[in-house]
Amino acid sequence: MYHRRPLTPRLLRVLLAALLAVGGLLLGAGTAPAAAPAAAPAGAPAFAPAADNGSWAVYPVPASKAKNALPDREYFYLEAAPGASVSDTVSVFNTSAAPITFQLYGADAYNTPRDGGFALRAADQPQLGVGAWAHLKVNRLTVPAHHRADIPFTITVPKGAEPGDHPGAIVALDTATVGTSSNGKVAVGIKRAVGARVYLRVSGPAVPAVSLQDVSVSRKAPLVPGIGSSSATVHYTLVNRGNTTVHPTLALKASGWFGGTVLNSVPKDLGIDLLPGQSVTLTAPWPHPPQFDHVSLKLSIAGTDISATAGTSFFAVPWFLVGLVLLLIVLLVGARRLRSRRRRAQRGGGSWRRGRVRVEAAA
């Protein structure tokens, strides 16, 4: 009688080894140029301030009183103790060919959640830091074409303010509304604003701290390993849990069961100023990740007085190949069972016929 061999752990290991061998055989088989910068408008100062939209610029007042004087600072870097005040002057340069009327105000800064960009609260949004503490000499003025206006301001820090960085900006908002048209009708009214960054440090203990969380990997791979290229994207969330602005770098390192170290990137500047209390969800490309392996990935964040690590692991498995092997196993087991049943049926049927013949002969 035929006996089906059970799928013991040893047999499963043999089948897995065969699958890995097939994968190994299959693995063994087989920018646009940057645009030129636009010319500066007539009457514009001979520099490119960080806060400039082509029609007006906002920046710390130059030491020189000359009309086209170069700014001595790119941003405002100020410090004051709780309960104290600090004063400075902001310049608004109208580089357009027509006068512009501006609304001036202080604004709090934050990081955009998707890319960590430096963004500012609007004038009608709640302000808790620089936006609430800044007081300008004038809040509305008209600047003639190709002229600069210098506006003094004072930032008064409350007595109970937390130590650390409180970033924001002094913003010049064009009071005119620019309409976007659709089918000859005005669809959306837009007001444009430019802000000069203010990095305000409230005196006291500085506590830099960051953390990494929610690390995951999304992959694109061919159905059969080695037949086409693969790519992956690393997703992670970076949180500033301290009270200082940090400028982080990211390094990736990954290892696999079969290939040892499969990724070891040098630290890369993320190009963001991560503000206190802010979190951003970022991605990192991973070209040509393993197509058939078990991968352990480690992310490392570094910067001045900060460090953080986090990781994840995943199976880089060709599911098409796995499904094919499993299908073959199912078919093999099914075929053995069917053969066993047929043999039992044949043996049982032959004995019955021989017994019947003997009975009829005796009658």
Give your account of this protein's structure.
It is a single chain. By secondary structure, the protein is of the alpha+beta class. The protein has two domains: 56-202, Immunoglobulins (Immunoglobulin-like, Sandwich); 208-318, Immunoglobulins (Immunoglobulin-like, Sandwich). The chain is built from three helices and 20 strands. The chain has helices spanning 9-28, 130-133, 319-362, and strands spanning 56-60, 76-80, 85-94, 100-111, 118-120, 134-136, 140-143, 147-156, 164-174, 178-182, 185-190, 193-202, 210-220, 231-240, 249-256, 260-264, 268-269, 279-287, 293-303, 306-316. It is elongated.
Features:
363 residues, Immunoglobulin-like, elongated, alpha+beta, 6-stranded mixed beta sheet, 5-stranded antiparallel beta sheet, 2 domains, 3 helices
